[in-house]
Amino acid sequence: MNLTSLRYSFTFELNGGQAASAVIESPRVLEDIITDLFRQIEKTEETFLFTADEEKQDLSKRAVLISSVFDLSYDKKTVQKRLFADLTREIETDGILERMTETLGTIVAYLDELRLRSDCRIASAEEITLTELFKALNVQLEEPRGSFAEKLMEYAETIHRLLGKDIFIVANCGAYLSKEDLSHIIKWTGHQGISLFFIDGYRLPANEKIKEIIIDRDLCEIR
Q1: pTM of the model
Q2: Range of the domain at 93
Q3: Is residue 70 a part of any domain in this protein?
Q4: Is residue 93 part of a domain?
Q5: Which of 173, 167, 169, 168 is nearest to 200 (CA)?
Q6: Is 222 in contact with 213 (CB distance < 8 Å)?
């Protein structure tokens, strides 16, 4: 897989099950690259060419950009929507849908009784969907825990399973990682089969298993 900047013509090579790193020494260029990646993934502007198997592909369908520890959160509508869909499918396939439907019907009946007894005019839905129930009970994924490395691995594994994303771009987060963290992350990446791409202004703690490209202040590439 290749990720080519349309602004600077740099090409970054990504491989499933492997980690890669780009060190961009110019602060301005680093900012441009990260901003352009955000725009490409959010589909607000075409700033990168992403190809896989020599075919152009939609980066937004496969990639996630992580630029701070606060991005390692499941508090996103797309994640909640997919979680509810998965839970609904599990309820339907595990044979408990009938019991759930009966319980929801009982809740609606209680509301009808309450409406008749109340001196106020009360309106309520005639039925409750599973999604509405999940929201009412505040059903959600527990946020990742631990160090940045632990949160990153847990988050990436969950997003990969729920949303099918398999490229995780980690920008300006190298300061959170030790050499031991990187060794663990690299082994984990190989087991998961995802692609992990670090972008930073400084080199990550030395690790021979990370494919590294350095773009110096003169925009020369050192591989």
Answers
A1: 0.87
A2: 78-136
A3: yes
A4: yes
A5: 173
A6: yes
Burial of residue 173 (CB within 10 Å: 0-12, 13-18, 19+) is buried
Q: Are residues 26 and 85 in the same domain?
A: no
44 conformational bin, left if phi > 0, alpha if psi -120 to 50, beta if neither: alpha
Residues 70, 171 within the same domain: yes
Helix axes 77-93, 148-163, angle to 10 degrees: 60
Rounded-to-integer distance, Cα 206 and Cα 222, Å: 16
Query: Which of 118, 136, 154 is the endpoint of a domain?
Result: 136
Q: Name the residue with tokens 């060419």.
A: 49
Query: What is the residue-level pLDDT of the chain in tens, covering all 223 positions?
Result: 999 999 999 999 998 889 999 999 999 999 999 999 999 999 999 999 999 888 999 999 999 999 999 999 999 889 999 999 998 888 887 778 788 788 888 888 888 888 788 888 877 767 778 888 888 889 999 999 999 999 999 999 999 999 999 999 999 999 999 999 999 999 899 889 899 999 999 998 866 678 899 999 999 888 7
Q: What's the structural domain count of the chain?
A: 2
| CA 42 – CA 55 distance, rounded (Å) | 20
